[in-house]
Structures
1.
Amino acid sequence: MMELEQAKKRAEELRAIIEYNNRLYYDQDAPELEDFQYDALTRELRELEAAYPELVTPDSPTQHVGGTPSSRFAKVTHAVKMESLLDAFSYDELRDFDRRVRDAGIEPEYVVEIKIDGLSCSLEYENGKLVRASTRGDGVVGEDVTENVRAIRSIPKTLQGAPEYLEVRGEVYMPHAAFQKLCEEQELQGAAPFKNPRNAAAGSLRQKDPKITGSRGLSIFIFNVQQIRGVELTTHAGSLDYLKGLGLPVSPRYHVVHTIEEAIAEIEQIGQGRAGLDFDMDGAVIKVNDFAQRTQLGSTAKFPRWAIAFKYPPEVKETRLLQIEIAVGRTGVLTPTASFEPVFLAGTTVSRATLHNEEFIRQFGLCIGDTIQVRKAGDIIPEVIGVTAHAEGAVPYQMPTVCPSCGAPVVHLADEAALRCINPECPAQSLRNLIHFASRDAMDIDGLGVAVCTQLVDRGLVRSAADLYTLTREQLLTLDKFKDKSADNLLRAIARSKENNLDKLIFGLGIRNIGYKAAALLAERFGSMDAVRTADMEALCTIDGFGEIMAQSVVEFFAKEGTEDLIRRLAEQGVNMTWKGEVRTDRFAGKTFVVTGTLSSLSRKEAEALIVRNGGKASGSVSKKTAYVVAGEAAGSKLDKANALGIPVLTEAEFLAMMEQE
């Protein structure tokens, strides 16, 4: 048994890791750890605290729910605490749970149901009308997401025959088909796709724009009654039957059993049936059925004593690598994908998985014909995690030296792990370039989404962004689902984009290493596209916030064959090529800011734009050179580093007050 000092040190390490990952998972919808890795850390901490009770602290992650309410939404205090569940990873732990229930003098009847992997949400109905929806948050205080929930078609807004008041708890989830569609759109736009459906659902529900939430295909399964007035319910199974009768979508599978062995058998059946599900599940739940018995059992500080969640172990399969296919992205990056003999994994048959880049392939020494290990990250995205055996006489795979789309040479740039095709006319890049050009932070052409861009490119109507400005009404009417009104709306949106400020056009060109902040700096510093186009390395490096790599990217882009023709054609069509001179001060001159967390009245991009327009520099990382950190909700590691370095931390209100100072 480890000594107390060792145990104390390890407990502190575990708490720091778990809390950091809680912020990523619950507040930023961007986890770094797989569920089973997070569960193992939490389990280790729980066992340490059980062995050394003096190590338990009130703020330990074992004593509270992981999330925190965001300032982006109004706060909601839950009348009934939204608790999390104790996890079990073996059938013996389920038998121990049953023993604890029976030791309390209870002869239980259990309900076993699927544990949906999504975002926990409360719905409140008054006389059958949906009046409020809120997230779990930290279990006591959540976020008011009523308007976003109203945009989800599958959630009933009215209930027939409903009681005077009803609060239910459910799990908002994203069906697999909707998740795959969203990931495809994100990849085409050059954005990092969500890691799994749970994070996609959470990120979609917590959007500032309800229209975006409504477009994501979300749904919900209700699994509990939190409060009810006007009807008396005595059992959990009876309450689910009642909710189903009201028209609410309840847990898709729930069975009443009388012994823990029957419950375990049902859990095995649920696990075997995962293949037929169109949503993610991360386990099964056992609940005491009788509400009076639940009251008798009560809860700990964090978990109810009347329920437990069983987590299925991650599934890994071996298969044979058949070939490696290469795709070309918007910026010319070559991405390798493994094609292997099909295996049945976590509910579906899979035969492909990303290999990320050349370095990833080299680490494993991958050879065609190897026996490889495959799993599903988050039970949804296939990935290669190892090599069991190399094929006899096989040779390690080598990435291509020319682009598979256009045949141009591929290169490594600036010590990148990725290989790139730098041919501006590469057809594989044209669609992704077009989608980026039309995106919100670029030229913001409403109605020119992924589906429309794809049709325009596939039908040969558009090869580059300049072709957008020559489109006719007749051409648009040949596209699927296009009528007179939609064609006219898109033409007006394209025409409006000609008046955009220069920074949006520069960002829309998709210059490698040049984001929207750098595009604004270029537009302000040089004032016109011609001046940007002819700027040399020395001039570019004089811009505060510009390094050699960014400057080199600009020079290389405008030196490419085809770039000059693109700029000329855009100018001929009337696209604005000059900086319109937004109001600027020098109040932040010489100061570097880092914006972190979620602000209530500004997006992070808007706050950074204000900093730049007032002479400051907006950085993505905290260092000794940072003047201020502007911290919103769930600020995370950047706030911790600022405090450690003694850097002044501003609230959103304090930052805005600085803007008003003379």
Note: The chain has five domains: 4-63, 75-310, 316-409, 427-572, 592-660.
2.
Amino acid sequence: MSKTTGFFARLAASALSIALATTMLAGCGGQTSAPEADQSEQAESVVQQDIVVLFTNDVHCSIDGDIGYAGLAAYRDRMLERTDNVTLVDIGDATQGNVLGTISEGQVIIDIMNEVGYDLAVPGNHDFDYGMPRLGALISNAQADYLACNITYTGSGINQLSAIEPYKIIEYDNIKVAFIGIVTPLSTTSSSPAYFMENGEYVYDFAGENGGIDLFNCVQGYVDECREAGADYVVALAHLGDMEESAPMSSLDLIHNTEGIDVVLDAHAHNIIPCQIEENLVGDEVLLASTGAKLENIGQLTITAEGEMTVGLISGYPYKNSDVESFVERESSTYQSKLGEVVATSDTPLTISNESGIRLVRIRETAIGNFCADAFRAISGAQIALVNGGGIRDNLPSGDIIFADVIAVHPFGNTLCMVEATGQEIIDALEMASRFTEAEMSDGESAIGENGGFLQVSGLRYTIDTSIESSVVVDENGKFVEIAGERRVKNVRIESTSGAFEPIDPEAIYTVASHNFLIKEGGDGMTIFMDNKLLIDEAILDYQVLITYIVDYLQGDLSDKYSTTDNRITVHNGPMTSGH
């Protein structure tokens, strides 16, 4: 259905330069950092009858990086000088990704997108990270129409996403183009599962069952509906991704298992795809493109009056829309001031070090470590949570605690993950984390036993017997291999639903929450969970976990729960006596 070959003749007829041809790769798409003259010629190649669809994806709050929203607005203005048939779309993950998004819960991004002039948008998996009611409010505040054909609500409460439509057909000079939104079914595992539930049951469904068949059937039904309504072209705005971990519901799987889609504009994987041609279920060509992330490129789909379709990427665009640039600066300044707003209070400081400067969070249980681990456990719903002490970077003061204080505790932007793990794997992880722990914390001049991989925990208790020399074996890169002798971690107990602590069962399966650094990347040599089944895959940001826990679970008061530690980790030099 896609007609691409005629573009070569059109290039020759318009006498565009070779450099321009590499900016928008002939016949399909291309990407390069083009000089200003080439960008100008690209604008000149568009004529009044052309339909131009500009697209962004995975901006992740990067409001002024690379091209930025002001550059995007300037390029949109340039296209509007050539043709009235310009539509600007975003394909998800716009509202989450840095501090600005977190402290405004996405609103600053929606305000900027409204100023730029977005027409259509699709929610990405990380746009759910502020919770369903908040996403519903953001959609209500957006001037763009939100699309997603594969979200259904089966609950008895309020459907917070009722404003989302499955598709929209836009008519340009008697040519009808259907835009169909698609959200990855992996959203329920890459944001907090609780957001998709009511009373512990999933009520938001993304057509993710039966190995992709449900998704393909859902999309196909809407493609057919759009064609029957007179759509001349069908463009899928797909927050699916082309990477292997998205299979069997990737953008490639979608193309190969449907018919009637002309172009798939993709997101989620952060891959730069100027354009590639894939065959659909019946052998017709479908164009696939994606811009990468963080506005490093602008995507452009062009449909001519003759039915020729081309897609490619614009990079290095040097111009800015001054009105949008000023708006972005004002919004950024306004929300940056929110970093000083009070979000919590505490009677006592939660510190990572003692008065001597020894970083206790790396060698002992700490109140701030308990707070961080509890936050990961509460937001994920896991049975236990593990947080490496080296990832807890700053104190929380006594008295008023502001946004900036909380963000400083977890400044790395890691993301919430949860896996299934055996009791034995949990025991091994604790052994690995405790291998440097000593009975004494200092030799009088410096700390003893500090380890960034020391685990602060929630939902379990255990003892470290420092009289036993560690038998942890690691490889040449410091990665966990095995336990080769007697263990120093003893008496590991898991908190039950009744609140009692019961001995861990090495054969049982438990849910474990942490972040991507520990769970997926094997940070601090902790490779134990890297191959385990992921239940939550890189959901909300680590500092957003803390802020959500403070606001929604603690109601802004840390005093009662975190004034002291509560004997989760006992460090002992020698066999435990009775009564412990």
Note: Confidence is low (pLDDT under 50) at residues 1-27, 29-40.
3.
Amino acid sequence: MNYSKFFFVFLLFFVVNSVSRNAFSQDLSKINPLILLTVGDEKITYEQLEKAYQKNITKQQKHLYMLPEDSLMDFLNLYANFRLKVLEAKRMGLDKDSAIIAETLQNRKILSESYLFDKKVSDYEINKMLDRRKYEFRIGIIFTTFNQAPVRDTAVAYEKINKAMKEIQEGGSFEDAAVKYNDDENLGRKSGKVDQWITSGKIYREIEDAIYSTEPNNVYPKVISTPFGYFIVKVYDKQPRYFVLGAHILYKLDGPTDSVKTAEDIAKKGLQAIKNGTPFEEIAKKESSDNVTAENGGVFKEYFSRSTGFENSKGMLDIKFADALFNLKDGEVSEIIPTDFGYHIIKRIAERDLYDSEEKDELKKIYRKQYFESDKAKFLDNEMKKLEFSINHKLMDQLLSILDTNASNINKSWSDSIPANLMNKDFFSMDKKNYTLKTFIDLMNTQSNLRGFAINKDGLVRAIKKILEPDVIAFATKNLENEFPDFKQTLNEFNDGVLLFKAETMEVWNKVKFDTLRAKKYYEKNKTKYITDPTYDISEIYVLSDSLAQEIYKSVLKGDNFDTLASKLTQRSGFREKNGYMGKVSGNSNKFGKILKEKQITSPIVLSPQPIENGYTIIKVNAYEPPRQKTFEEAIPDFASKMQEEYQKELSANWIEKLRKTFNVKVDKKNLKKVMEYK
């Protein structure tokens, strides 16, 4: 049996998402404590302003202090206005409003859950992976697997892998054992050596942990168990990880025999020409079979890492090609390197270090997809232990002996066979609160998030944990504000946003209503801007044939009635009954009106056939209305939104002016100068 495909599907995780580069970090400790702004009794430091600035997606510079003075002052004024609105909301007592209190509690619940799992689950693991990504490894694998279904039988695979480990521990070579015991035939033929460099996030986690705890030329001393099989790992090499920009000239193989010699001979001539002084790029453009890179002098468009591939596309290079590239120094050219694609002459252009921000973005995606849910479950299990979670296993066993363990709770009759005398028994408990079997069954039958659980031990336990999860999370998040000041600040910002929105709604948005008197004044001031479209009252005959259209047009010119012809001949659906009548159309927006406007038609006429919609149209102009100034009622849709916007800005500006009289706003010019001089 060949397990190669199986092995690489489950073992290697190739990530294809491109990432963006974040702003570089900067030491702002000298200016962070400086108070730049006072709003009411609030003293606002540069650090607070910088954090707010970093959340601005339209920021002009990477840091606030880098802005020109006028732009920096604009930002200070915006931030001052934000704080003024929050202070006014509190002065109005909105922070005591029951609806707002309920909303802030809901905000905390949502934010705290996300923050909890980021800080206590994800961040540690992602940072560990980030640190590991500084290195990459060449490894060997011995792999034994087992049937997953219908019965998961691991005995043969377990015995086989342990025989391999015993032989290695007794002095046998890893390579011999790999040939003898590997269930992956491809790995067996290669004595277990994997044809790819490995780094964190590219391999199953248990195997990754073993690799990073093993020195080169050593075998990890334990058999590694995974859901897919058993592994023995040997580390051959460990190298710092970085990116290289490379170039190549490819001499492609066109056939099995003669072409091999021909391609190699041509490659040798190309290499000799380079050694004699012909530029590499010139040879690449003339001779390379790789059309994508040839036009660029052989240079790849992206930097490449041996373990993660090209930086954006994530494509991988042949291992022999990659190793040859990385063994060169910048500017050096290789000897001829054969691969399955042909013969290569490789040039190393440059190298660059890792960008932690890019790596972290990629690892976040890998972690969320591969590991987060299992790590989250382990974390919640530990929290449940603190709350003394327990299950009545005797009652569980009774249930399993009664229920159909091959079914699920999709069908509400799943629990009908349970005797009534069991219903009031305590099924599980946590934090000194007991849950009866009846309570559990009622929840399973009524809550949508509990639908579809298997009625076996594993499924029932998972359902119990799902029921208790909100209480466990509430317990785990109750002290987040004290543990993490950043969370407290984030929560305060959300709550301030709620207060601001409520106050602004009351003071501005609720007052922005359509006022007819204001609208008429606005119209009188701007009415010359609002002009009607040129309008045509038309009828039409539409046919698919040019020759038929010409015949109809000739008939009209001879005096035949247009409406009668339309009632018999137009092929536009639904218009024979209307004698082709279309009514009034705009010369600016209607396709027929545009034709007439372009031809400057201003009086009744029958237009000669015009191509349209895979056919031909004969248009009769019944009447023409030239552009004119719109009446007040006609112009309302044109100006209402702009008028409302201007009114909103007027109300907002008046409100801010009032607030600045109520609460003192002051910019510390001395400290502002220090910030401006920092750059």
Note: The chain has four domains: 92-133+373-507, 134-240, 243-353, 532-625.
4.
Amino acid sequence: MEDRPLADLFEPADRACWLGLVEGVLKGADFEKRLVSRTADGLRIVPLYGAAEPADQPMRAPGPWRIAQRVDHPDITAANTQALADLEGGADALVLAFAGAPGARGYGLTAASVEDLDTVLKGVMLPLIALRLDAGSQGLEAARLVKALAERRGEDLSDYDLDLGIDPVGVLAATGSLGAVWSEIAPRLAETASELEAAGFRGRAFLADGRPYHEAGAGEAAELAAVLATALTYLRALEAAGHDLATARDRIAVLLAADADEFVTVAKFRAMRRLWARVEQACGLDPKPLRLHAETAWRMMTKRDPFVNILRTGLAAAAAGMGGADSVAVLPYTQALGLPDAFARRVGRNSQVVLIEESHLARVGDPAAGAGGFEALTADIAEAAWAAFQAIEAEGGIVASLSVGKLQRRIELTREARAKDVATRRATLTGASEFPNLAEKPATVLDVPPPAAPRGTNFGAGSAVACDALPSQRLAEPYEALRDASDAWLAKTGRRPAVFLANLGAVAAFNARATFAANAFAAGGIEAVSNDGFTEAAAVATAFRESGATLACICSTDALYAERAVETAQALAEAGAGAIYLAGKPTELSEPLKQAGVHAFLHVGCDMLALLNGALRAAVRAPSPQQTA
């Protein structure tokens, strides 16, 4: 018996050989359409990459990323309980989300004095953890509270690993207004930095936050470009006030949204470090590691089937960590439903503990190095982001671009394209647009009313900068609105809107399309009433009347449609169906079917949101067949 390695028994594979095999499988189909995907910015992702030479890639300092937990309970005593539980459970960083900040998601700390903040952080040894503030328009006041807290405790600010999160540009993008013109705000930022440094502060005072752009629908390149332009704006403000550039760049940190697209998220975080290093070099500085934070994306969170959010945020946290984030904050899986309880917070925290301590994902400094797909995508995103950044700079910088709406318009185009993908289910949302569970039990959140948001901004008072605020949207919201309407109808009538599946022929003939239709209608909160199939139109009509449904959907094969679909549609229309659908793409039978009463065709790639909105309106407007009989 020949004793050779298995690989030696086969001819070496190469790309030409692989392409030949692919062509055989495609059978003439377009390679680009079938096997090449694209990012939101239009960057190509091909199905196969060869090994690559690792690029000169800046990464975080050796060691694991920090596990950051948001502290956002409006009651300061309860907030302290949150903070202590998180630190005891494995977190080594806290994010203080203040009421009124966009990142507080409607809740947040109400600490208005140094005494309040001391209560929130009672028992927390600040020199041993990292602390980041998320205070939105109250950023300067929150920074002063931390400075006062250090003095109250007799501690030195230089001992704190501190990110103050001051981000007036992000506030402008998210809210559409600031309390003063930029020429007044910029010197105030520099004065704040000087005051903090005089008190011993050595952390990051300013944050270039990518969340407002990501939540508005921006692609990866646009988010990075906005963040880069924001960071450069702060760098210029500090330099103009006399701050040394080498010190000024140490006062700036970046926060990016991490979503469940693992490959793109890893590449985006790697690209951010490359882009900032390029800015540093252009300023005549030797690049230093950028402080790069991550928070799992609000855009991808769903209210329906929220347990799927655990998978989304877990994957996003892993991608951010592998991409080089210094800290990762995971949104609890019930964040979109209200204020998360201790269990949801624990799940989010433990997902990172598992990634670091059990999966050892932080053991390698740059696990994507040399991987052809990651290297190519990192380079492509960085190149596209730099071009988008140059466009912002050509418009006078990010404040000017936002003020005249140019950046918003570009993001709007990407948002509309993504919304179309969501509507057609090209971009699937498990639990919302795909595989919905109409019988799901509601997840629990804390019964806490949202606090009143502080009014105004402490960035200044006078002639304010204003712009069109970027919208903060979750992708699942249109489907959730349909489900909410279905729930309201259920509460009112005792039954959900229903669609009768007019299955033709044997189970083998209708099962695939009936299953597809039931899943599709459920995404709109419409319950499917199924059966074992029919051979006569009269029997279909009788069963429809008895079902109590107001909608009907014909399901079978194209061959049986040719034989029975028209007469079935006519029978259903005569039986009082409020709207009739057919599972399948339009064919030469389309016109006869429409004349017989078919309202729309349900198929892969159709505008599902439009169809479901129309179906739900028809279902709640039409009388039941029993009422018309």
Note: DSSP finds 23 helices and 15 strands in the chain.
